[in-house]
Amino acid sequence: MRQSRWTPALLAGLAFALLPADARPQAAQAPATCTVVYVLDGDTINCEGGVTVRLLLVDVPDRGDMGEQARAYVVGLAPKGSPLRLEFDENPRDSEGRWLAYAYLRDGSMLNKRLVESGFAYVEFSAKNRARLQELRDAEQGARSEHLGLWSE
Question: Which ranges in 19-110 belong to alpha helices (H)?
């Protein structure tokens, strides 16, 4: 007599496939907005609901005087309770599970760009996420020309 080769994993996969689409667990949907809970550093923000947002295409020094100034600048623009509108690019998450986004303030300006044009951040190239790359590079060039922040020496 021949034995069945139905393994538990195969049976579970078949059961999952037979579920209606609306009954299947969904991958986390990218949030359209974020309410600021805490500014971790100049380019990372913790939001309500356990959402962490890493600002796309910018890098802020994590330590030292410039890092503290950048964090204070972001807190001034987006204090606790502030709403941010989020826009995503090709790759919406990083390897740490943070949402990668262009964040827009209440006045419609892009927080990422404000950091760069004020000299608190430099543009960080991404092969996947490039929708606003030229806009941010232009802002960085302006900060360099004006010798602002990171470019003051």
Answer: 64-77
Fold of the domain built from segment(s) 33-151: OB fold (Dihydrolipoamide Acetyltransferase, E2P) (2.40.50)
In degrees and rounded to multiples of 5, residue 58 shows phi and psi of -125, 150
Report residue 147 as tokens.
């010798």
Cα–Cα distance measured from residue 144 to residue 97, given in angstroms and rounded to the nearest whole number: 32
Q: Which two tokens stand for residue 88?
A: 């995503």
pLDDT along the chain (153 residues), means of 10: 52 47 57 97 97 98 93 98 98 96 98 98 95 98 98 90
d(CA 64, CA 93): 27
